[in-house]
Amino acid sequence: MVKLRLARGGRKKLPIYRIVAADSRARRDGSFLEILGQYDPRFNPARVTLKEPRVMRWLNNGAQPTDTVRSLLSRQGIMLRWQLEKKGTDATVIDAEMQKWQTLQQLKIAREEARNAQRANAKKAKSQPVAQAVEPAAQPAESGS
Q1: Taking the CB of the first residue and of the last residue of the chain, which one, N or C, has fewer CB atoms within 10 A?
Q2: Would you call the peptide bond into 65 cis, given omega within 30 degrees of 0 as the criterion?
């Protein structure tokens, strides 16, 4: 049975993973059939590069992705495309669905960025009153001398 899974690389405390098609009996970093992409979790958001046609070929041939790889493929929209192709959906409908999915992902990212900016502003607002309260206490002590 063929699995789509991660093979760890990089050095100590600086991991980088290859997304590979490998026999399920092979070791994690052992032999593999093909390199399908790369996952770098050190960045925010994590960088994922994939050879989409090759991943689709392996999925169509029955390869089973691990949970982590399935999550990475879902974030890239490959699992959605594969599900639509598996149902026998027309190519124009698949392209329309993928455009819709891309739009929703961009909106989701924009909402998340706005939420993060709002949290940062709230954090700044909390720290400012503390600084103002400290200043008036320091001034009378200086003028009394």
Answers
A1: C
A2: no
Following DSSP, what letter does each residue of 57-76 receive, concatenated? Answer: HHHHTT-EE-HHHHHHHHHH
Q: Model pTM?
A: 0.73
- Could you give the CA distance from residue 133 to residue 136 in angstroms, rounded to a whole number? 6
- Tens digits of pLDDT across the chain (145 residues): 888 999 999 999 999 999 999 988 888 877 888 999 999 999 888 899 999 999 999 999 898 999 999 999 999 988 988 988 888 888 888 889 889 999 998 999 899 889 988 988 888 888 876 555 556 655 665 555 5
- DSSP secondary structure code for residue 145 in this structure: -
d(CA 69, CA 14): 19
Q: Contact 17/8 with Cβ under 8 angstroms?
A: yes
Sign of CA pseudo-dihedral 124, 43, 59, 8: negative
Largest distance between two CA atoms of the chain? 86
